[in-house]
Amino acid sequence: KRLTQEVEAYAIENKEQLETFRNTYVSRKGQIAALFDEMKTVAPEQRKQVGQELNQLKNLAQQKMDGAQETLEQNATPDALSGLDFTLPPVPNALGTRHPLARVREQIIRIFERIGFNVSEGPEMEDDWHNFSALNFPENHPARDMQDTFFLSKNPDMLLRTHTSSVQVRVMEHQKPPIRTLSPGRVFRNEAISARAHCVFHQVEGLFVDRGVSFKDLKDTLYYFVKELFGPDTQIRFRPSFFPFTEPSAEIDITCLICKGEGCNICKQSGWVEIGGSGMVDPQVLENCGIDSKEFSGFAFGMGIERITMLKYQIKDLRLFTENDARFLRQFEAI
Ligand code: PHE
Protein backbone atom coordinates (compact mmCIF):
# COMPACT_ATOMS: atom_id res chain seq x y z
CA LYS A 1 0.00 0.00 0.00
CA ARG A 2 2.76 2.39 0.95
CA LEU A 3 4.59 1.64 -2.26
CA THR A 4 1.40 2.19 -4.32
CA GLN A 5 1.02 5.65 -2.84
CA GLU A 6 4.66 6.41 -3.45
CA VAL A 7 4.42 5.33 -7.06
CA GLU A 8 1.28 7.38 -7.59
CA ALA A 9 2.80 10.49 -6.06
CA TYR A 10 6.09 10.32 -7.89
CA ALA A 11 6.49 13.28 -10.28
CA ILE A 12 8.35 12.55 -13.49
CA GLU A 13 9.21 15.80 -15.23
CA ASN A 14 12.47 15.08 -16.95
CA LYS A 15 14.68 12.28 -18.24
CA GLU A 16 16.71 12.04 -15.03
CA GLN A 17 13.57 11.60 -12.92
CA LEU A 18 12.29 8.97 -15.35
CA GLU A 19 15.55 7.07 -15.01
CA THR A 20 15.49 7.26 -11.18
CA PHE A 21 11.88 6.05 -11.20
CA ARG A 22 12.80 3.11 -13.39
CA ASN A 23 15.74 2.13 -11.17
CA THR A 24 13.86 2.55 -7.88
CA TYR A 25 10.66 0.71 -8.74
CA VAL A 26 10.48 -0.97 -12.14
CA SER A 27 13.89 -2.48 -12.88
CA ARG A 28 14.76 -6.06 -12.00
CA LYS A 29 16.65 -4.81 -8.94
CA GLY A 30 13.90 -2.35 -8.00
CA GLN A 31 11.54 -2.39 -5.02
CA ILE A 32 8.62 -4.05 -6.85
CA ALA A 33 10.82 -6.93 -8.00
CA ALA A 34 12.03 -7.26 -4.38
CA LEU A 35 8.41 -7.62 -3.21
CA PHE A 36 7.83 -10.40 -5.76
CA ASP A 37 10.88 -12.17 -4.32
CA GLU A 38 9.23 -12.06 -0.90
CA MET A 39 6.15 -13.92 -2.23
CA LYS A 40 7.59 -17.24 -0.97
CA THR A 41 7.40 -15.97 2.65
CA VAL A 42 3.70 -15.18 2.32
CA ALA A 43 1.25 -17.71 3.76
CA PRO A 44 -0.23 -19.93 1.02
CA GLU A 45 -3.82 -18.79 1.64
CA GLN A 46 -2.88 -15.11 1.18
CA ARG A 47 -0.68 -15.63 -1.84
CA LYS A 48 -3.38 -15.19 -4.41
CA GLN A 49 -4.53 -11.82 -3.09
CA VAL A 50 -1.04 -10.46 -2.46
CA GLY A 51 -0.06 -11.61 -5.93
CA GLN A 52 -2.97 -9.72 -7.50
CA GLU A 53 -2.12 -6.54 -5.57
CA LEU A 54 1.52 -6.80 -6.56
CA ASN A 55 0.60 -7.26 -10.22
CA GLN A 56 -1.61 -4.16 -10.07
CA LEU A 57 1.26 -2.20 -8.54
CA LYS A 58 3.60 -3.44 -11.22
CA ASN A 59 1.19 -2.43 -14.02
CA LEU A 60 0.60 0.95 -12.42
CA ALA A 61 4.33 1.69 -12.30
CA GLN A 62 4.85 0.48 -15.86
CA GLN A 63 1.96 2.61 -17.19
CA LYS A 64 3.16 5.67 -15.34
CA MET A 65 6.61 5.22 -16.83
CA ASP A 66 5.33 4.70 -20.40
CA GLY A 67 3.05 7.73 -20.14
CA ALA A 68 5.83 9.93 -18.81
CA GLN A 69 8.21 8.77 -21.51
CA GLU A 70 5.72 9.64 -24.24
CA THR A 71 5.07 13.13 -22.87
CA LEU A 72 8.77 13.81 -22.55
CA GLU A 73 9.40 12.76 -26.17
CA GLN A 74 6.58 14.90 -27.49
CA ASN A 75 7.79 18.00 -25.73
CA ALA A 76 11.41 17.46 -26.66
CA THR A 77 12.79 20.27 -28.88
CA PRO A 78 16.40 19.95 -30.05
CA ASP A 79 18.12 23.25 -29.29
CA ALA A 80 19.23 23.82 -32.88
CA LEU A 81 15.67 23.74 -34.18
CA SER A 82 13.91 25.77 -31.50
CA GLY A 83 12.48 29.02 -32.73
CA LEU A 84 12.26 27.89 -36.38
CA ASP A 85 8.98 28.11 -38.24
CA PHE A 86 8.74 25.05 -40.46
CA THR A 87 5.64 26.35 -42.21
CA LEU A 88 7.58 29.16 -43.93
CA PRO A 89 8.27 28.59 -47.67
CA PRO A 90 11.97 27.87 -48.38
CA VAL A 91 14.32 30.50 -49.79
CA PRO A 92 14.64 29.52 -53.49
CA ASN A 93 18.05 28.31 -54.71
CA ALA A 94 19.29 30.58 -57.49
CA LEU A 95 20.77 28.42 -60.25
CA GLY A 96 23.88 29.85 -61.90
CA THR A 97 24.14 30.32 -65.66
CA ARG A 98 26.99 29.79 -68.09
CA HIS A 99 29.04 32.90 -68.72
CA PRO A 100 28.27 34.65 -72.04
CA LEU A 101 31.92 34.37 -73.10
CA ALA A 102 31.83 30.60 -72.52
CA ARG A 103 28.63 30.33 -74.54
CA VAL A 104 30.05 32.27 -77.48
CA ARG A 105 33.30 30.28 -77.39
CA GLU A 106 31.14 27.16 -77.58
CA GLN A 107 29.15 28.55 -80.54
CA ILE A 108 32.36 29.43 -82.41
CA ILE A 109 33.77 25.94 -81.85
CA ARG A 110 30.52 24.32 -83.11
CA ILE A 111 30.64 26.39 -86.34
CA PHE A 112 34.23 25.44 -87.12
CA GLU A 113 33.76 21.82 -86.10
CA ARG A 114 31.29 21.46 -88.97
CA ILE A 115 34.06 22.22 -91.47
CA GLY A 116 36.57 19.87 -89.92
CA PHE A 117 38.41 21.96 -87.31
CA ASN A 118 39.44 20.38 -84.01
CA VAL A 119 40.29 22.22 -80.78
CA SER A 120 43.81 22.61 -79.38
CA GLU A 121 45.11 24.38 -76.31
CA GLY A 122 48.40 25.74 -75.04
CA PRO A 123 49.78 27.22 -71.81
CA GLU A 124 48.93 30.77 -70.67
CA MET A 125 52.48 31.12 -69.36
CA GLU A 126 54.60 30.97 -72.51
CA ASP A 127 58.24 31.17 -73.50
CA ASP A 128 59.61 33.77 -75.88
CA TRP A 129 60.00 31.23 -78.69
CA HIS A 130 56.33 30.22 -78.94
CA ASN A 131 54.88 33.70 -78.39
CA PHE A 132 57.37 35.71 -80.48
CA SER A 133 60.52 34.23 -82.04
CA ALA A 134 58.96 31.31 -83.91
CA LEU A 135 56.38 33.79 -85.22
CA ASN A 136 59.07 35.95 -86.84
CA PHE A 137 59.13 38.73 -84.26
CA PRO A 138 62.82 39.77 -84.53
CA GLU A 139 64.80 40.30 -81.31
CA ASN A 140 64.34 43.91 -80.08
CA HIS A 141 61.77 44.55 -82.78
CA PRO A 142 59.16 47.17 -81.79
CA ALA A 143 56.45 44.64 -82.66
CA ARG A 144 57.16 43.08 -79.28
CA ASP A 145 56.24 46.36 -77.60
CA MET A 146 53.17 46.57 -79.82
CA GLN A 147 51.59 43.90 -77.66
CA ASP A 148 52.40 45.34 -74.21
CA THR A 149 53.78 42.11 -72.84
CA PHE A 150 53.71 41.04 -69.17
CA PHE A 151 57.09 39.38 -68.55
CA LEU A 152 57.61 37.11 -65.54
CA SER A 153 60.09 38.71 -63.13
CA LYS A 154 61.80 35.42 -62.13
CA ASN A 155 62.63 34.38 -65.71
CA PRO A 156 62.80 37.00 -68.47
CA ASP A 157 62.34 34.31 -71.10
CA MET A 158 58.85 33.60 -69.76
CA LEU A 159 55.76 35.76 -70.28
CA LEU A 160 51.98 35.69 -70.23
CA ARG A 161 50.99 34.94 -73.81
CA THR A 162 49.88 38.06 -75.66
CA HIS A 163 47.93 36.12 -78.29
CA THR A 164 46.77 32.59 -79.07
CA SER A 165 49.13 32.47 -82.07
CA SER A 166 51.54 30.74 -79.68
CA VAL A 167 49.27 27.68 -79.91
CA GLN A 168 49.68 27.57 -83.75
CA VAL A 169 53.40 27.12 -83.21
CA ARG A 170 52.89 24.32 -80.69
CA VAL A 171 50.47 22.48 -82.98
CA MET A 172 52.72 22.79 -86.05
CA GLU A 173 55.73 21.59 -84.07
CA HIS A 174 53.93 18.38 -83.11
CA GLN A 175 51.64 17.63 -86.02
CA LYS A 176 52.17 17.09 -89.72
CA PRO A 177 49.74 18.72 -92.20
CA PRO A 178 46.88 18.60 -92.95
CA ILE A 179 46.17 20.73 -89.87
CA ARG A 180 42.80 22.31 -89.21
CA THR A 181 42.64 23.55 -85.64
CA LEU A 182 40.95 26.13 -83.48
CA SER A 183 42.61 27.39 -80.28
CA PRO A 184 40.48 29.39 -77.87
CA GLY A 185 42.06 30.83 -74.74
CA ARG A 186 42.94 33.67 -72.39
CA VAL A 187 45.53 36.25 -73.40
CA PHE A 188 47.20 39.08 -71.49
CA ARG A 189 48.33 42.59 -72.43
CA ASN A 190 49.35 45.50 -70.27
CA GLU A 191 46.56 47.78 -71.41
CA ALA A 192 44.47 50.34 -69.57
CA ILE A 193 41.02 48.96 -68.77
CA SER A 194 38.17 50.71 -70.59
CA ALA A 195 34.83 49.95 -72.25
CA ARG A 196 36.75 48.54 -75.24
CA ALA A 197 39.90 47.01 -73.75
CA HIS A 198 41.07 44.89 -70.83
CA CYS A 199 44.44 43.50 -69.70
CA VAL A 200 42.97 39.96 -69.70
CA PHE A 201 40.77 38.88 -72.60
CA HIS A 202 40.02 35.92 -74.83
CA GLN A 203 41.00 35.07 -78.37
CA VAL A 204 40.31 32.22 -80.68
CA GLU A 205 42.97 31.27 -83.17
CA GLY A 206 42.33 29.36 -86.38
CA LEU A 207 44.98 27.53 -88.39
CA PHE A 208 44.70 25.62 -91.66
CA VAL A 209 47.81 24.08 -93.23
CA ASP A 210 47.73 21.75 -96.21
CA ARG A 211 48.89 21.52 -99.84
CA GLY A 212 47.66 24.40 -102.00
CA VAL A 213 45.85 26.47 -99.31
CA SER A 214 45.18 29.95 -100.73
CA PHE A 215 43.89 33.33 -99.63
CA LYS A 216 40.56 32.41 -101.21
CA ASP A 217 40.23 29.56 -98.69
CA LEU A 218 40.84 32.06 -95.89
CA LYS A 219 38.14 34.39 -97.22
CA ASP A 220 35.63 31.60 -97.83
CA THR A 221 36.16 30.22 -94.32
CA LEU A 222 35.69 33.59 -92.63
CA TYR A 223 32.66 34.51 -94.78
CA TYR A 224 31.08 31.21 -93.75
CA PHE A 225 31.90 31.80 -90.08
CA VAL A 226 30.63 35.39 -89.92
CA LYS A 227 27.33 34.55 -91.67
CA GLU A 228 26.80 31.52 -89.40
CA LEU A 229 27.47 33.40 -86.17
CA PHE A 230 26.01 36.84 -86.89
CA GLY A 231 23.41 36.09 -89.54
CA PRO A 232 23.35 36.10 -93.38
CA ASP A 233 22.97 39.89 -93.69
CA THR A 234 26.25 40.66 -91.94
CA GLN A 235 28.82 42.35 -94.19
CA ILE A 236 32.49 41.48 -93.99
CA ARG A 237 35.54 43.31 -95.33
CA PHE A 238 39.28 42.64 -95.35
CA ARG A 239 41.68 45.51 -94.73
CA PRO A 240 45.39 45.14 -95.66
CA SER A 241 47.49 44.97 -92.52
CA PHE A 242 50.75 43.69 -91.10
CA PHE A 243 51.65 40.84 -88.76
CA PRO A 244 55.19 39.45 -88.54
CA PHE A 245 53.91 35.87 -88.97
CA THR A 246 51.55 36.27 -91.94
CA GLU A 247 52.10 37.50 -95.48
CA PRO A 248 49.90 38.93 -96.88
CA SER A 249 47.95 40.00 -93.80
CA ALA A 250 44.47 41.43 -93.41
CA GLU A 251 42.32 42.78 -90.64
CA ILE A 252 38.78 41.41 -90.56
CA ASP A 253 35.96 43.94 -90.15
CA ILE A 254 32.21 43.30 -89.99
CA THR A 255 29.21 45.64 -89.96
CA CYS A 256 28.79 47.15 -86.52
CA LEU A 257 25.83 45.25 -85.11
CA ILE A 258 25.45 47.61 -82.17
CA CYS A 259 24.40 50.60 -84.28
CA LYS A 260 23.60 48.59 -87.45
CA GLY A 261 26.17 50.64 -89.35
CA GLU A 262 24.73 54.00 -88.21
CA GLY A 263 27.81 54.95 -86.16
CA CYS A 264 28.38 54.58 -82.39
CA ASN A 265 31.22 54.75 -79.88
CA ILE A 266 32.09 51.06 -80.29
CA CYS A 267 32.75 51.44 -84.04
CA LYS A 268 34.02 55.00 -83.59
CA GLN A 269 31.22 56.22 -85.88
CA SER A 270 32.57 54.22 -88.85
CA GLY A 271 29.85 51.55 -89.03
CA TRP A 272 32.54 48.83 -89.12
CA VAL A 273 34.22 46.93 -86.30
CA GLU A 274 37.38 44.89 -86.37
CA ILE A 275 36.91 41.35 -85.04
CA GLY A 276 40.45 40.09 -85.63
CA GLY A 277 43.52 39.65 -87.77
CA SER A 278 44.32 37.09 -90.43
CA GLY A 279 46.69 36.18 -93.24
CA MET A 280 48.67 33.52 -95.05
CA VAL A 281 51.15 31.84 -92.68
CA ASP A 282 54.61 33.25 -93.51
CA PRO A 283 56.72 30.45 -95.10
CA GLN A 284 59.47 31.18 -92.58
CA VAL A 285 57.04 30.39 -89.73
CA LEU A 286 56.24 27.02 -91.33
CA GLU A 287 59.97 26.32 -91.56
CA ASN A 288 60.51 27.44 -87.93
CA CYS A 289 58.03 24.74 -86.93
CA GLY A 290 59.53 22.01 -89.11
CA ILE A 291 57.01 22.16 -91.97
CA ASP A 292 58.30 22.26 -95.55
CA SER A 293 57.08 25.57 -96.98
CA LYS A 294 57.67 24.41 -100.58
CA GLU A 295 55.16 21.63 -100.10
CA PHE A 296 52.64 23.22 -97.75
CA SER A 297 50.91 26.57 -97.30
CA GLY A 298 48.38 27.76 -94.74
CA PHE A 299 46.22 30.54 -93.41
CA ALA A 300 45.65 31.72 -89.86
CA PHE A 301 43.32 34.09 -88.10
CA GLY A 302 42.87 35.33 -84.54
CA MET A 303 39.72 36.92 -83.19
CA GLY A 304 38.67 38.53 -79.91
CA ILE A 305 35.88 36.63 -78.15
CA GLU A 306 34.85 39.65 -76.03
CA ARG A 307 34.44 41.80 -79.13
CA ILE A 308 32.42 39.12 -80.92
CA THR A 309 30.18 38.62 -77.86
CA MET A 310 29.61 42.39 -77.55
CA LEU A 311 28.54 42.59 -81.17
CA LYS A 312 26.31 39.56 -81.02
CA TYR A 313 24.47 40.61 -77.86
CA GLN A 314 24.70 44.41 -78.13
CA ILE A 315 26.90 44.78 -75.05
CA LYS A 316 28.38 48.25 -74.92
CA ASP A 317 30.96 47.85 -72.15
CA LEU A 318 33.53 45.05 -71.98
CA ARG A 319 33.98 45.49 -68.22
CA LEU A 320 30.56 43.87 -67.68
CA PHE A 321 32.14 40.49 -68.48
CA THR A 322 34.33 40.56 -65.37
CA GLU A 323 32.12 42.39 -62.88
CA ASN A 324 29.99 39.30 -62.22
CA ASP A 325 26.81 41.32 -61.75
CA ALA A 326 24.10 38.64 -61.59
CA ARG A 327 21.60 41.00 -63.30
CA PHE A 328 23.87 41.01 -66.36
CA LEU A 329 24.74 37.31 -66.32
CA ARG A 330 21.13 36.16 -65.81
CA GLN A 331 20.12 37.69 -69.15
CA PHE A 332 22.00 34.90 -70.93
CA GLU A 333 20.03 32.09 -69.28
CA ALA A 334 17.82 31.43 -72.31
CA ILE A 335 20.52 31.59 -74.99
N1 PHE B 1 47.76 37.20 -83.18
C1 PHE B 1 47.22 38.38 -83.81
C2 PHE B 1 46.83 39.39 -82.74
O1 PHE B 1 46.65 39.02 -81.61
C3 PHE B 1 46.03 38.05 -84.66
C4 PHE B 1 46.36 37.16 -85.83
C5 PHE B 1 46.26 35.79 -85.71
C6 PHE B 1 46.76 37.69 -87.03
C7 PHE B 1 46.54 34.98 -86.79
C8 PHE B 1 47.03 36.91 -88.11
C9 PHE B 1 46.93 35.54 -87.99
O2 PHE B 1 46.69 40.56 -82.99
Automatic annotation (TrEMBL):
Annotated keywords: Aminoacyl-tRNA synthetase, ATP-binding, Cytoplasm, Ligase, Magnesium, Metal-binding, Nucleotide-binding, Protein biosynthesis
SUPFAM superfamilies: Class II aaRS and biotin synthetases, tRNA-binding arm
Binding site for Mg(2+): 247
UniProt main location, coarse: cytoplasm
Note on how the cofactor is bound: Binds 2 magnesium ions per tetramer.
CDD domains tied to this protein: PheRS_alpha_core
Subcellular location field: Cytoplasm
Domain Aminoacyl-transfer RNA synthetases class-II family profile: 103-331
Cofactor(s) named in the record: Mg(2+)
Entries under InterPro entries matching the protein: aa-tRNA-synth_II, aa-tRNA-synth_II/BPL/LPL, Phe-tRNA-synth_IIc_asu, Phe-tRNA_ligase_II_N, Phe_tRNA_ligase_alpha1_bac, Phenylalanyl-tRNA_Synthase, tRNA-bd_arm
Record keyword Transferase present: no
E.C. designation(s): 6.1.1.20
Molecular function terms, GO-annotated: ATP binding; magnesium ion binding; phenylalanine-tRNA ligase activity; tRNA binding
PANTHER family in the cross-refs: PHENYLALANINE--TRNA LIGASE, MITOCHONDRIAL (PTHR11538:SF41), PHENYLALANYL-TRNA SYNTHETASE (PTHR11538)
Entry protein name: Phenylalanine--tRNA ligase alpha subunit
Gene: pheS
